[in-house]
Description:
This protein is an alpha/beta fold. It contains three helices and 15 strands. The strands form two sheets. Strands 1, 2, 4, 6, 8, 10, 12 and 14 form an eight-stranded parallel β-sheet that branches. It is globular. The protein starts with a strand and ends with a helix.
Amino acid sequence: NGTLAAQPQHLIDIAKEAQAEAILWYDTAEGATGLMNGALNVEVGDRAQLSLEIVQDEKGTSSHIGHLHFTQGNHSQLTVRTATACAHWLRNDLHIVQDGEHAASTFHGCYLPNEQQFVDHHTRIDHAHPDGRSDELYKGLAADRATAVFNGKIMVHKDAQRIEAYQSNANLLLGEKASMFSKPELEIYADDVRCSHGCTTGQFDAEALFYLRSRGMTETAAHNLLVQAFLAEVLDGFRPEIRDYVHDVYAQRLGWN
């Protein structure tokens, strides 16, 4: 009956001009307790490509702290997609360093805490060399008394000119006592860049609900359809088997028909 702590470390090294796809899947049994303190270090070489999909489906009352660090070379491409399907207490720290010119980064994520769960995402991307691109999109739902946090930072270093970096965080509150805290940040030390950041947090669109109800849908069915449409922009980027699995978990947790 003792509480266990697991501290796995993973290393992914993508050689020059290589291509790879990887899945990192966290799963726990019902009633699980303890601590997961995991680290992932990734090196993406010059002109290399990596697509990484992360699924976090951790039941019970375990806690998860994830440290993810990525370094990119010249003309490299990195895509990271994170789906937090279920988590009692979770924090993801994701740090990307573009340590080469013409690097491209995409990092998307979705999360759904309910009951009294807590989900926390902290991201940072360092554009350290010229001509880099990044696209960041995180979408979250919070139901019941749950709490979600998003803190994203774009750092453009001196002389890292011609950077294009975009960050967006969108959230829906599904419970009157649910909480969302969002803090997008830009820190720019170059003068030839195109960067944007923003966040939205709200409840269901009353006009959209009225339109669906007027077409004969029940209130529950209309809510479910709007939630699925809200998440689709992130979930549709996953490979089909992961997208369908996460969709099924969300459906079970929210009582979708």
